[in-house]
UniProtKB/TrEMBL annotation:
<comment type="pathway">
    <text>Protein modification; protein glycosylation.</text>
</comment>
<dbReference type="GO" id="GO:0000030">
    <property type="term" value="F:mannosyltransferase activity"/>
</dbReference>
<keyword id="KW-0256">Endoplasmic reticulum</keyword>
<keyword id="KW-0812">Transmembrane</keyword>
<keyword id="KW-0328">Glycosyltransferase</keyword>
<protein>
    <recommendedName>
        <fullName>Glycosyl transferase family 1 domain-containing protein</fullName>
    </recommendedName>
</protein>
<dbReference type="GO" id="GO:0005789">
    <property type="term" value="C:endoplasmic reticulum membrane"/>
</dbReference>
<keyword id="KW-1133">Transmembrane helix</keyword>
<dbReference type="InterPro" id="IPR026051">
    <property type="entry name" value="ALG1-like"/>
</dbReference>
<keyword id="KW-0808">Transferase</keyword>
<keyword id="KW-0472">Membrane</keyword>
<dbReference type="Pfam" id="PF13692">
    <property type="entry name" value="Glyco_trans_1_4"/>
</dbReference>
Amino acid sequence: MQNQSVSIASLLYDKRAPNRCNVTLIGYKGEQCIPSVIDQPNLRILRITPILSHIPRSLFLLTAPIKVLLQVSHPTLIRYITVTTTLQILQLFYILLVSTGNTDAILLQNPPTIPTFLVVWISCKLKRAKFIIDWHNFGYTILALSLGISHVFVRVRNRSISSKKPHAPSIPQIARFIERVIGQKADANFCVTQSMQTYLLSNWNIHATVLYDKPPISFRPTPLELRHKLFQSLSEQLKLCNDLVSWEHDADTLEMTLVTRKVVHHDGIRHTFRHDRPAVVISSTSWTPDEDFGILFNALILLDQRIASSSSFPNLLVFVTGKGPQKAHYVEKINHLRLRRIRIATLWMQPEEYPLLLGAADLGVCLHTSSSGLDLPMKIIDMFGCQVPVCAVGFESLSELVQHSKNGMIFSTHLELVDQLFELLDGFPSRLNGNLHQMRMELQSIERWTEHWNTIAKPVITALWT
C-alpha cells in the first residue's frame, strides 16, 4: 500500500499547485514508513492509534455485561464482535468522514476485511467517492487460520450436510459473505495474481485487474562500500559470528568485517570481498504459524552435519529478520544450538536499512505459506529486486513468481531445503558459473514497481473520472 500511495500521489502532483491534490495514507501506528512515502510532498500519513490502547485494564470490566448479552444471543460471534470492534468501527468512520476532508476515492487494501470493508463502502457512498479494492489476499482465509480452522477453502466450499439441523454460519463464512458482497460494489478492483483474478471472477463475479507487486528501485544489490559500512554497523550484533572467519590485525591499513575488507593504500582506499567470507543467507519472517521457522531451523541443523567435513562448502551466516509471537521461542532454541559452521543472527532492521541488508545477501529463504494459496509473498519480490535468488515453500500461485531452477527453487520439506542449499552454495564464492550465479543474472532484468504501475494501474484509475 505504501508503494501504491506514492504512485497515486506522484500521478496527482502538480508543482504549480502542490497542494491541489493530496493523498492520505491511513494505517495503524507502528513501524516507520518507507522513505519514498515520507519524501512525497502531497502525501500525508494518518496514523491510527487503537482506540482502547491507553485505557486502564480495570475499565474493560465495563464491557462485561455487553459481552454476556452477546454470548447468550450468538456464542460464536462473541469471539469476534466485541465492544472493542464497535469502537474501532466508530473510529474508522470518524477518520474517513471527518479527518480526511473532501475525498474523491478510497483505495482499500484487503485484508483486513472486518470491519474495514463495510466502513469504507459506506463512507464512499456518503462522500460520493470512488471505491477501489486492492486484493492482496482474502480476509476470511486469514481469519480462519487465526481461529485454528484448517483448510478453510474445503470448509467453505463444501458445506456439511450430515446434520438436518441448520448450523449458524462460522465467522470465516460471515467474513467471506461480506468480502464477496461488498467486493462486488467496488468501482475498480486490483489483485496480485492471475490465480486470484480467476477465483474472483468465477466465484464472486468480480472483475479485477492483475497488478503484480514489483520491487521499487530502492531494492537493489548493495554496493561493496555500503556493504562494508553495513557490516561495520552490525558488528556488535554479530560478534558471536566472528568465528566463521579468520582475522588479521593492522589498525593502520586494514579494516575487516565478516564479509568485506577495507584496505588503505598510498593511492587511496579499496574495498574488496574477503576470500574466506561466509555465504550470507537471509530469511524475513513474521514468526507466526503460517511461516513455520521450524523448517529452516531443522534444515540448518542437518546442513551443518552434512558440511562438517566439506572443504568446498562455505561457512554460512544466516540472517533472520522480522518480529512476531514465536520469535522468543526460536531465539531461545537458536541460543542453545551448537552448530559448527553455521551461525544464525536475528535482526530487526529499519525501513531504510532493510534493502541494504537484502542487497548484501547471496541467497534468500521464504517460509511464507499462503492462507488462500492465491497471493504472493512481498519478501520474495524484495529479494528479487536485490537480485537475490530464493528457496521458497511451494503453494498454488507461487509459480507466477518463482520459476524453479531459473530464479529460485521451490521446496516442500526441510529435507528438500537442505538439498537445495547444498546445491546452490557448494563451491561458493569461487564457482562463478553455477546455478546461483545464473539465477542472479536472470534477475537483472526484473521489472520495477513504477514502470509496472504506470502500465497497469494508471489507466484503470484515470478511467474512473473520464
